[in-house]
Amino acid sequence: MKKSILVYSIISVLSLAACSRDESAPSPQLSCNSEQLHNQIQQTLQTGIDNNARQFAQKDSRQFVDAEKVIGASHELSIALSEGKLDKDANGNPICNSELKITIPANIWQQTQVNAPLLFGKSDFIAQLNQQLQGNEVTQRDGVFTKAVKYAPVASNTNAASAANAASNFDQAGIQTFATVLGNALLPFGIKDTVVIAGHTYNRADAITLITNPNAKVSPIDQPSPSAQMASAILNGHIPAIGNDNQTDSNNNADKISENNSKPVEITASQLQLARDNNRNANSVINTHWRNLDDTVRKTLQQEEQKWIARKNSQCQEKATKADTPAHAEFLRLECDTQMTNERIKYLSGYALH
Hints:
Layout: H1 2-24, E1 30-31, H2 35-59, H3 67-74, E2 78-81, E3 85-88, E4 94-103, H4 106-115, H5 117-120, H6 125-134, E5 138-141, E6 144-151, E7 154-155, H7 160-167, H8 172-186, E8 194-197, E9 200-203, H9 204-212, H10 226-235, H11 247-261, H12 269-292, H13 295-320, H14 326-349
Antiparallel strand pairs: 1-7, 2-4, 3-4, 4-6, 5-6, 8-9
Protein name: Putative lipoprotein
Organism: Snodgrassella communis
Domain Lysozyme inhibitor LprI-like N-terminal: 262-348
């Protein structure tokens, strides 16, 4: 009996000692500052912006944006995560609160705003952007975007593998949405140096002028040279405008044009190439317009479109028969095709969805 009491006493003492040691063991310290977390967030943002730029460029029928320019700009962003503060969530679990700040370099932000009309028209780009941000808990001021971020803390005694896993425990969906917003904000920066509008190529600055002021007198960079314009006018039976300093000079110039009309017309390689380029651009634009029409509208116009194509081919072939040489014939056909295609583009634009 005494032996049993002694055994139970020893067990009790040992148990009390173990409990005493467990209660006195300190809880692991939790940290809200993790370089791995910063890297994870940065990678999520970068991937989101890259994907957004490439998807937009693929779907953009106008082909205004160079995705690589947008991606290049995104690599120059300054990404900062403020020192995290340890708190508790609604369930009493530890949580870290921090602020993510993305700064777009001043030169990139300025160019983005200058280019914006080519993508968003005359609407206020900043106002549109801020409206998008409101639903995503993001604020923007002078190209600096901020967003509150919550994430799980990391124990001080956590090994590297566990720390990396814990660092991925943040609001990834929110950060991905943030990346999409940032990607959209950077899209105008990616506008190409030259863009095609209504079948003509313009440099970016002139294209912006044309968009913001449709009545502006802006010449496309693919505008034929004076000599090419002269040749085109002669081929179509028109006498180009001539300065009227005195009637004698006008008559002399008219006589020279008449003389030129009696000789075989020579089309230079550059004139022919320009005609080909103009025709290719016009057909690219009309094909895009046609694809972007509502399905119902497209079906309604199907027969009319086929008749127009047949008429265009017939008329342009007829013009080509008046040529003196094969190059001359191709030039006449291309010029006719381009002119009729540009007229058709204006017609189809009336059916486009706005």
